[in-house]
Design a protein that fits this description.
279 residues, mainly alpha, two-stranded antiparallel ribbon, 14 helices
Amino acid sequence: MIDTRHYKASTLQFRLNILTSVFTWAAENELIGRNPCKNAKLPGTRAKARRIQKADVFVPRVEDVHTIIRSAPARYRGMIWLMAGCGFRLGEAMGISRDRIDFKAKMITIDRQVAGDRDTGSGKYGGQQLRHVKWRDEEDHGREVPLPDAVALGLRRHLKQYGTWGSDGLLFSNITRTGFLYPEYWYQKVWMPSLSGAEMTYFRSHSLRHFYASSLLARGVPITEVSGWLGHSSVRVTEEYYAHLMPDAPDRARLAIDAALAPVQPEAEGESGLGEAVA
């Protein structure tokens, strides 16, 4: 994979993590005898791969996110809200439909994405199709993510101005409203001009998903919940990417232990018999 596809060590580690989780589940449920990934060795050290992986995680500032939204074409601003405010991947944002958004319960369901056909290399609308996020497991119900008020407002504005399109009631389409939005069009005609208009240097729109994760973790949201909302295969994957983005974790640990031990803290020496007894 390194020689033929030129994958980075961090990519190999990420994919090994996913395979390890799958085979661990299979072994625990006695579908296979042992986990073949358990003793797998990758080029370089795991520590080096993790350092590279962390360096690849770019987190834009909140003011940058707002600037990009203002700079983006109005018909696609909702996608940026979804990626930054709900942790959507690009294909998931392209595949969101009205019936997956529950404004009353303030929840949104992520169970479909727009992507190319992995089996045949082609599909409807020139290779793009709407398919389940777990494309080989249709029984998986996807994931539900909290819908923040700021994102809900952006989506309501989009629906009021542009409505939906197609039999599936999708929110976003290509510019002519004749088919799915392509990643190539998104990057060349939407994302790059938005960055240019905001006078910002290039970074991938996937970094908006990093913004979502880091914002939750920095505010003390448990990583187990963040992992589920991101749709990661395991908490281990989330930790690999985002554990270093929790700068307040040591403070939270100290406060938690201080609160737990405060009721039983010994009184100052000289104010009880404890100090005398120890002496």
